[in-house]
Amino acid sequence: MTDDLEHLYQSTYTAVVRFLYRKVWDAERAEDLAQEVFVRALSHRPEKPRAWVFAVAANLARDEARAAMRRKRHLTLLKGDPIAQPTLTPAADDTVEHDEQMAQVQEALSTLTVRDREILLLWDAGLSYPEIAARTGLAVGAVGTTLARARRRLVDAHDRQQTRTGTDAAHS
Amino acid sequence: MRHIPEDELHAYLDQGLSRTQCVEIESHLADCPSCQALRDGIAALRDRTTALLARLAPPPSVPPAFEVLRKRAAEAASLRRRRLHLLAWAASVVLAVGLGWGASSLVRSGPRGQLAARAVFTPATPVHAAASRPSPDSSESPRGTTVAAAPAPAAAAPPPRAARVRTIASSPTDSSRAARRAAALSVLNPSPAVELTQLDSPAARGDIELDGMWRTMSWDGAKAAAGERLPHIDGLPVMRVQVQSNEQGARPVMVVAQRLASGQVIRTIEGPATDVTQLLSRGPMSDVDSLFLPGGAKRAADPAGHAMAMQVGDRMLAITGDLPSDSLRAMIRRLNAEMRSK
User: What's this model's pTM, rounded to 2 decimal places?
Assistant: First the structure.
C-alpha cells in the first residue's frame, strides 16, 4: 500500500508539480501544493491513487486561485502597494527569452475553454483516457474529440501570436 | 470506404482506444494514403502541443524524500486527533457545567427549603422534573424526599417563570446519564496523588484584584513564556492573561481568564503553592486557615463562587469561577491530567 504510494510519488511528483504550476504560475507554490497532495494521499489511502492525486491537485489549485482572487480584490484597495509579480528579475538573455516563450504559450493556453484546457493539461500530466473521463465526467469517447480540439486551438493561437509578434518586430 | 475521423486518430495515437478499434484503424491505415497523411499531421500536432506545453514547466527541483512527507502526514494526523481532543474538552466542559448545576441544585435544595426561590432562577434544574416524574432515588434517600416535596411552592409561584423553568429542566435520565459519563471521564483521568481542595474564594466572585506586581500579557506572549505550563482550558475564548512578576526567575503565577459560552468567567491559575493560596485567600474576612475546608463543608453555604485547587508538589493549580463545585472539580481533574501529559 505505502510502497504503491511511494512509487507513485517517485513517478508522478514532477508531473503533479508541472500540472499545478500551469494553474498557479508559481513554482514554489506548485511544489508546496504537490507535497500537500501526497501528504493527503498518505492519510487518505485512495483506491485509485493516480487519478485521486490529480483530482486533489486540481481542487487545491482552484482553492488557491480563489484565494488569490480575494487577495487581489483586497489589494486593489491599497493602491500603490507593490503587488507581487511573477518573478521577473533582471536575468541573462536566455532567461528573458525563455520567459517570453513561456508567456506566449501561457497566453495561447488561456484562449482555450476551461474544460478543454483542463483536459489537455490532464493528458499532458500523463493521465489515460479512462482516467481523464472519470475525473471530468466526460465519456471516454469524447476525450479524443476534446483533445483534438484543444490541441488545434492551442497551436493555432500560438501561431497567430507568432505572426503578430513577427509583424510587430518588422514595424519597429 | 469510411475514412478515419480526426478525433479517432487522436485517440488512436493517445492509446485511448480498445484493442479491436486499434486493429480496425490499423487495417484501414494500411490501404489508405489520405488517412496516413492525416495521421502524420495529427502526430505532428501532438508533438507540437507537447513541446509547447513543455515550456510551461517550473524550473526543475529535487523532490523531498518520501519519508519527509510521511512524517508530515503523521503530524497532520496527530493534529487532527488534537482537534478532536479539543472538541472533547469543550464538550466535557459543557457537560461538567450542566451536570454540576443539576447536582448542586439538588444539594442546595437541602434542609432550609430555599429551593423554591432558587429553582425559579436556576436555568436548568432537574428538580422540577424529579417532581413531575418521580425518579427511583427520590424515594430512597431522605434528601430525595425533600426534593420531591419541595417544588410545591415553585409551582405556586408566578406561572410564566415556573413554566419556562420546567420546559428546560433536564429529565432524571439525562442527568444520570451525564453522571455516568462524568464518572467515566474521571476514570479515564485517574486523579494523581495530589491534594484536591475545595475552597470558597472571594477571588472567584469578582475580578481578581491584582496589585502592581502583576502584568497583563498577550496570549501569544504568555504562551511563549510559559509554554505548555500555561494553565487554560482548550477551546474557550481567552479574555485575559495575567502574570505575576517575580524576581527569582522561577515560574511565576499565571492567571488565565476565559469565558464560557454562558458568559461566565472562569480562571485557571498555576503557580507556586504558597503564592496561589495567598492569591485565592485575598478578599475581605479571609484567612488562609479557613480556606482549606474538607470538600463539601462550605458548599451549601454558598454554591456559587468556588475555587478548586489541586496541589502537585510545590505547585498549585486552581480554577475559580461562578460555577458549582462539581463542575470545577471535573474541570480541574481534567486540566491537571492535560498539563501533566504535556
Answer: 0.47
